[in-house]
Amino acid sequence: MNYVSYGGQRLEYSVRSDGARSAKIAIHVEPDGRVLVDAPEAAEQADIRNAVQKRARWIFTQVEEARSRFQHVRQKEYVSGEEILYLGRRYVLKVIRDTEGRQPVKLRGNRLEVTCRTGAPAIVRASVRAWYRVKGRDYFDRRLAFWEQRLSWISARPPFRMQEMEKRWGSCASHGEIVLNPHLIKAPQECIDYVILHELVHLKHHNHGPEFWATLSAADPDWERKKQRLDADVERLMAE
Length: 240
Description:
240 residues, 2 domains, globular
């Protein structure tokens, strides 16, 4: 494990080796508070530790700000009147008690109606989560099909699955499988496209070197704005 110390405290950080990086060691604090360090493959561990420690004060300040944002987000109680996010739009949760409801979750106007026998929050939560997964599976598949037709290095749509991840929106396995976080279905459509495109670029470039960013920018010159929009709302999107 790698740790940086400051003021009697320690923070864990992860090192990502980048074969395309020449000499500079880059330090990032993600919106969720993770500390990531990109370093050349040939970098000595001592040099990485020194570079991180030199920026310890900045790192701790950024991590504290990230954590404080999460503290202000209320956990959902899954009762009528709460906000529900879907494709970047806000809906109002309406819990309906009905023993014969044939469609347990339905969008109706500006409401997401959840019908169940007791209205117990645990049951409502399970219904909403299941609905998100169904919607996410269908929508993500359509967007993968969209990008499949537009990216020259993709000859066939890659397999994908959904998996809840605390700190990531998506990933691309070495064998080509795309993994997407079902919470992503709450985000605006352009932000979902950014995440999917990011992972698809990894099918061509398996690191975050200059060629990766150049390919991403060629496919979507506006990706940075979309990423910033997604990062700015990560706390609400991840909240349950």
